[in-house]
Amino acid sequence: MFNRPMLALLLFATAAPVPLLAQTNGDAEIVVTGRSLKDTSDALAACLARNCPPDEDIAATLAHAENQMISGGYKDSRTTLLRSIDRNRKHGKAYPVDVSDLFRANSRVAEHVGEAKNFQLSVLDMRDTLKAGLGANDPRVMVAQIEVGDSRAKLGFAAEASRIYKNVEKDARANGQNRVAVFAQLRQAILAQTAADLSELESDRKLARSTLNEIINNPLPGTEDFGLVAKVIMARMDRKAGQAASTEAILQDFAARGGADRPMLLFSEPIKRIDMTEDFGNNQPQANTLQRLTALNSVGKWADVGFWINADGRVSDVEMLRGEGTRQWLKPVFKQIQTRVYAPLRRADNDANPGFYMIERYTLTARWTEDATGTNMRRREATPRIERLDITPENYQRPVAQSSKG
Question: What is the C-alpha to C-alpha distance for residues 151 and 116, in angstroms, rounded to an integer?
């Protein structure tokens, strides 16, 4: 969960196994046992007590911090990571990948607790650590620079993100890193698509489509498989415009190939902003101060949501597996998951593929800011936001009941 680079989101769709508590529909409680918090805490403490090497320290840190976050201990997870960063930052030259994983993990926890500045700086530290240890032309450094662009886009600096993506594409092409170059192109297309959704400018849509068409029709050597990703993004744009033909064509193509081996999302609506007027049952066009304060009191809530992807690529049995606090804020999450369309699945030999079981962590948060009141006093932004992490076990199966409780 913590050390997957952004490239994996498009190329591999892998996920790390995690402990979780699940409830089936009418079945007995299911417990998936992983290493307990005590186990990972003891392992980290033992490592530090024997003055273990930095890579072992970092591995133990990441295991424990991930365990803490999955268990809902966000602040504890962040403390564990920050302490390890203090110990191991100086080892970045000798262990660039390991130390960069620490910064990446910290950036993701920072997102979920609303620490926008720390999120931004941790992504930069992650990139800089890899660059210092591996050199600017290493593909992992270029992908890390794409992650920097992603962070700028997420924080609202789309023009800066676009500049970063273009520079990565240029550098990657010059150094023969074709897959990285096309990945940067895809990010530019997605950014243009998002801009078109917000501005409704035809120029943004044309830019997105021309970029995707280039990837599909003129693939760089070794990047032919990216054409499918580009087609999926194009189909999402078509569906938003009310045109379903391209999505149906992709579905038919997957069916002809025998189906997908792993979940591949073809379409989904965005998660809508929390509608506080609906939650509070009134007709006000905009939430008033009291409603915003009430909503912000819910910040820090989290939930694990599970659902099936059936053989036809449709979603069913969306359910909250566990969480903290009221479920009211999960309404837009459930609605968004139910809009998803995945590629049809490859059938098993006995033609009884039950589908993929997905688990995602959602966190209700609001970013901290120092300029919301005209002073330097820190406070939360007025509008809560929902952050997401994929925590699906590697086998994509609904957990099997076990007697032990880890």
Answer: 10
Buried b (16+ CB within 10 A) or exposed e, 340-371: bbbbbbeeeeeeeeebbbbbbbbbbbbbbbee
Total residues found in the chain within this entry:
406
201 φ/ψ angles, rounded to the nearest 5 degrees: -85, 130
33: its two tokens: 């046992």
Residue range 131-160: mean pLDDT, rounded:
95
Number of Cβ within a 10 Å radius of residue 150: 19
Distance between CA 343 and CA 13 in Å, rounded?
A: 13
Instruction: Give the phi and the psi of residue 388 in degrees, each rounded to 5.
Output: -135, 145
pLDDT tens across 254-290, in order? 888 888 888 888 888 888 766 444 443 333 334 455 4
Contacts (Cβ under 8 Å, ≥6 apart) of 278: none
Rounded to whole angstroms, how far apart are CA atoms 92 and 102? 10
| Beta bridge partners of residue 265, listed in sequence order | 342
Question: How many Cβ atoms from other residues are within 10 Å of residue 43's Cβ?
Answer: 17
Count of CA atoms in the C-beta half-sphere (13 A) of 33: 7
* pTM of the model as a whole: 0.80
What are 228's two structure tokens? Answer: 């499918």
What single-letter amino acid sits at 158? A
Q: Helix (H, G, I), strand (E, B), or coil: what is residue 326?
A: coil
3-class secondary-structure state, position 269: coil
Evaluate whether 153 touches 195 at the Cβ level (below 8 Å).
no
Give the pLDDT of residue 251. Answer: 86
Q: What residues does each domain of the chain span?
A: 264-406
User: In terms of Cα–Cα distance, which of 287, 317, 322 is closest to 301?
Assistant: 322
pLDDT at 368: 81
The token pair that represents 173 in the structure block? 């092409």
Structure tokens at 60: 């133990």
Burial class (CB in 10 A: 0-12, 13-18, 19+), 165: buried
Q: How far apart are CA 181 and CA 240, in angstroms?
A: 27
Q: Which residues of 257-288 are buried (b: 16+ CB within 10 A; e: fewer)?
A: eebbeebbebbbeebeebebeebeeeeeeebe
Question: What's the distance, CA 376 to chain centroid?
Answer: 31
